[in-house]
């Protein structure tokens, strides 16, 4: 009897329980085919098509009788991993020995049970690999007498790939290349691949960017047909475009962005009305040009967001649109969607209205110039636009009122500096400084927050399906552990049971401000936070203490904002009673895809964040390679059982002082007091202590900077200790781009 794998799969699919091997043997003809059947079944198990359960029983992955859950595995560079179940629930810890040839990002089937050693946490083992995450891998080619191997750029992959001699395809030792996987790991045999693209030498700035693009599989080029569709867009608006639009071209309106920004998607105007303020926030009407189902729309959805690197942007839309007809360039007629709002002296919104409009921006202002006017009092900084100074001062007054209102209701403000990469003409990093976030940034942040919230409330009131920007409350277990963690430092976090109010977290941030433990407190709170995301249901926004919030203000660079614009138009028609059958069908179409769109765009946002963070970290490492042997002042920013982390004062960079390099004594880790203590001398290294270090090693591939401690003082000083961003909070602002939201909404990019 000639047996086929398909017959085995069909039989298992028909069964409601796992089958013992003996049952399979009887079903296919008895003992005379035992060896052939065993070989076929083993092959199916290795490929992940069949699960082998205890007792020599077999079933298909994901069936009710398999006792398994499915999800994507995230592997730490130290070898262990976590699986987030597709069905929801607690993440499952996977020890390194139980990963069973799965690679980072793979969709796997896992058998889990409560762990005795992990205090009841779920622990599991990978029993099948259902889907490989990446068929192409980028990394550095290494050649030796034994042959060629690829060391992946993504450290979490955790294995090298062999490249046979006939598959090197012209690449040489040390080059960055892309391979296509030709064989996955089996048993102790490493995976294999063939070179399909040679990127170049790793110290070339362009190769660095191309490596990151491929590492995160970022769509980075538009198809000719999509570019042709963009090229067909008009260069200027026509009279037909003005139909049914409110004409705001005579209203003094400005854009406020970074010095080198090119895509301006928001413009603001203000007018006092007695003791109140009338604010106009006009946003580029991208939905007028990007029609649902078009090539441009499909490409924008695929990308989900623009991605910003130190020297370039990978746009969501072709530059013909993003820097052209959609961009609110100064002194040009542009189509917009406007949120018009009236606020009182307490920041309460008294009125709001929304409508298609046309504007003509009076000036393209920068954060620097606006700061000079509203903070430094230098109205001459505006030069030919000096007449706008009074309006900017009115905007300052309203922004401070809105900021105070938000804080009063409990909005959390993590005002933390982030790295700014300064590049030279050759693309090499010249400096790494702490980015500035001043009142000019905060002014725009407050106005964008107000518009986002107003739009969300309006559309929700129409009882329509909608896409929200949500931020769920922190994890109770993490919160309780963190509250106990900070007690020895003299800080308290007020909790009601296992819950916390945003105002309590903000109070803790205020209490820690300027103290040596500020970094510890801010970082710890961020780690307790869940990640903001998009959702089709309104689960509120914890960080902003907002009961109803969305993203409306950046449709040039964020796809969810484009969805919101489309829904806003339909909501306006619905309220006016003019929603026709075509509009109703469009509303039904969007509504049916909102959950999927929310999940997809949330994923694309996370990928963009990781890619941006990755290249910034690489720039830091490369910059410090030229500083080996030099000494820097800094402070202890973190303490662990294997050493302490020191953040430099002059350069926004952090490195490790390993325990083994502390030669004056044997140090023990005092976990309760978060310090290293010398056994003989009693010398204590604590968070916030000033320290002088020497750079001794930099390893870009391992993403590690190593210091040795030259001197250390236990004399405490008041310092504002910065923290780097975590996965809980968004992207890193880069030189030349508008700063993005951190703890507060920096340009509302990630809030």
From TrEMBL:
GO terms for cellular component: cytosol. One of its GO terms (molecular function) is RNA binding. 3'-5' exoribonuclease that releases 5'-nucleoside monophosphates and is involved in maturation of structured RNAs. Belongs to the RNR ribonuclease family. RNase R subfamily. GO terms for biological process: mRNA catabolic process. The keyword Hydrolase applies. It is found in: Cytoplasm. It comes from Trichlorobacter thiogenes. This is Ribonuclease R. Residues 629-710 form the S1 motif domain. SUPFAM superfamilies: Nucleic acid-binding proteins. Signal peptide: none annotated. HAMAP family: RNase_R. It comes from the Bacteria. Its main location: cytoplasm. Its EC number is 3.1.13.1. Keywords: Cytoplasm, Exonuclease, Hydrolase, Nuclease, RNA-binding. It catalyses: Exonucleolytic cleavage in the 3'- to 5'-direction to yield nucleoside 5'-phosphates. The gene is rnr. CDD domains: S1_RNase_R. InterPro entries: CSD, CSD2, NA-bd_OB-fold, RNase_B_OB_dom, RNase_II/R, RNase_II/R_CS, RNase_II/RNase_R, RNase_R. The lineage of its organism: Bacteria, Pseudomonadati, Thermodesulfobacteriota, Desulfuromonadia, Geobacterales.
């Amino acid at each position: 009897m000639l047996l086929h794998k398909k017959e085995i799969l069909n039989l298992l699919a028909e069964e409601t329980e796992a089958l013992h091997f003996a049952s399979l043997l009887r079903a296919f003809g008895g003992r005379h085919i035992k060896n052939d059947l065993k070989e076929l079944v083993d092959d199916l198990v290795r490929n992940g098509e069949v699960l082998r359960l205890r007792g020599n029983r077999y079933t298909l992955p994901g069936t009710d009788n398999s006792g398994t859950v499915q999800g994507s595995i995230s592997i730490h560079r130290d070898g262990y991993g976590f699986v987030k179940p597709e069905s929801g629930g607690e993440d499952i810890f996977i020890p390194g020995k139980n990963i069973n040839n799965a690679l980072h990002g793979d969709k796997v089937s896992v058998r889990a049970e409560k762990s005795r050693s992990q205090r009841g946490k779920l622990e599991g083992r990978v029993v099948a690999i259902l889907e490989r995450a990446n068929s192409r891998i980028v990394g550095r080619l290494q050649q030796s007498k034994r042959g060629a191997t690829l060391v992946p750029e993504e450290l979490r992959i955790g294995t090298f790939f062999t490249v046979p001699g006939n598959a090197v395809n012209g690449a040489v030792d040390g080059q960055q290349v892309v391979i296509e996987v030709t064989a996955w790991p089996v048993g102790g045999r490493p995976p294999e691949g063939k070179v399909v693209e040679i990127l170049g030498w790793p110290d070339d700035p362009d190769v660095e960017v191309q490596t990151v693009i491929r590492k995160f599989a970022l769509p980075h080029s538009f198809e000719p047909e999509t570019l042709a569709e963009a090229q067909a867009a008009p260069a200027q608006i026509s009279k037909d475009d003005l139909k049914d639009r409110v004409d705001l071209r005579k209203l003094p309106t400005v854009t406020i962005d970074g010095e080198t920004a090119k895509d301006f998607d928001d413009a603001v105007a203000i007018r006092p009305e007695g003791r109140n303020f009338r604010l106009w926030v006009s946003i580029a009407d991208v939905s007028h040009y990007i029609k649902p189902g078009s090539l441009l729309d499909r490409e924008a959805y695929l990308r989900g967001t623009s991605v910003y690197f130190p020297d370039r942007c990978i746009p969501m839309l072709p530059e013909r649109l993003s820097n052209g007809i959609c961009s609110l360039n100064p002194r040009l007629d542009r189509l917009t969607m406007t949120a018009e709002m009236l606020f009182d002296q307490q920041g309460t919104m008294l009125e709001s209205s929304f409508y298609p409009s046309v504007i003509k921006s009076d000036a393209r202002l920068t954060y620097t110039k606006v700061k000079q006017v509203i903070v430094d009092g230098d109205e001459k900084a505006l030069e030919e636009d000096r007449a706008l100074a009074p309006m900017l001062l009115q905007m300052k007054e309203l922004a401070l009122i809105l900021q105070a209102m938000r804080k009063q209701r409990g909005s959390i403000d993590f005002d933390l500096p982030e790295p700014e990469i300064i590049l030279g003409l050759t693309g090499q990093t010249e400096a790494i400084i702490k980015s500035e976030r001043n009142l000019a940034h905060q002014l725009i942040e407050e106005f964008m927050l107000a518009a986002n919230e107003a739009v969300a409330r309006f559309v929700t009131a129409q009882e329509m399906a909608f896409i929200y920007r949500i931020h769920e409350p922190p994890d109770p277990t993490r919160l309780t552990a963190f509250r106990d963690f900070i007690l020895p430092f003299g800080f308290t976090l007020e909790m009601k049971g296992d819950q916390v109010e945003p105002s309590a977290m903000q109070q803790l941030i205020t209490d820690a401000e300027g103290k040596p433990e500020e970094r510890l407190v801010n970082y710890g709170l961020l780690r307790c936070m869940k990640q903001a995301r998009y959702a089709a249901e309104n689960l509120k926004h914890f960080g902003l203490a907002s009961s109803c919030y969305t993203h409306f203000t950046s449709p040039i660079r964020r796809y969810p904002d484009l969805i919101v614009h489309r829904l806003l138009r339909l909501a306006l028609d619905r309220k006016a009673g003019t929603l026709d059958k075509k509009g109703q069908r469009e509303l039904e179409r969007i509504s049916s895809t909102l959950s999927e769109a929310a999940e997809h765009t949330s994923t694309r946002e996370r990928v963009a964040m990781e890619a941006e963070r990755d290249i910034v970290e690489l720039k830091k490492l490369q910059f410090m390679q030229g500083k080996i042997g030099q000494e820097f002042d800094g402070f202890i920013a973190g303490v662990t059982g294997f050493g302490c982390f020191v953040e430099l004062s002059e350069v926004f960079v952090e490195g490790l002082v390993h325990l083994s390099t502390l030669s004056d004594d044997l140090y023990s880790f005092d976990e309760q007091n978060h310090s290293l203590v010398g056994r003989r001398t009693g010398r204590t290294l604590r968070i916030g202590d000033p320290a002088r270090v020497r750079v001794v090693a930099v390893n870009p591939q391992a993403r590690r900077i190593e210091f040795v401690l030259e001197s250390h003082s236990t004399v405490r000083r008041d310092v504002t200790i910065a923290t780097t961003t975590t996965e809980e909070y968004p992207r890193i602002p880069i030189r030349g781009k508008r700063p993005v939201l951190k703890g507060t909404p920096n340009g509302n990019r990630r809030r």
